[in-house]
Structures
1.
Amino acid sequence: MFSTGQKIFGILFAIAFVIFIVWSYRKDLKLHQLHYKKVWVVGVTIIIVIGLFAVLTFTLHE
């Protein structure tokens, strides 16, 4: 399906991408801690809203 060169390129690209993402995140860690202290509240709120929407959808369609 893929040639050997394509497989090697894909593996090297994935490794380089992960290394770059980790490096970038570590570099900006202090800024993230300063500006995004309560970001978990947004995540919990989104999960609750999706849950309520699902409950309303299933109860109204019965």
2.
Amino acid sequence: MNFSLTPQLEHFVREYAATGGYNNASEVVREALRLFKRTEEERHLKLLKLRQLIKDGDDAIKKNELTNVNSVQELESFFDKL
């Protein structure tokens, strides 16, 4: 597989590899891809959770099971419990 980097990204990868934390540019790119993959997986899980919370909220509204929030503090407390 071949791919191109912008000059700025290529410089960043080469410089980062030269710091000694990685043996070469390929290791830097692989680590970046692992981090990207993990970030995308976490984003996907958060999206699933948000969709479930929206569904739960819709269901609660249909059942008239509502929570009144009257202040920012109450709102923060509500979200802390989620």
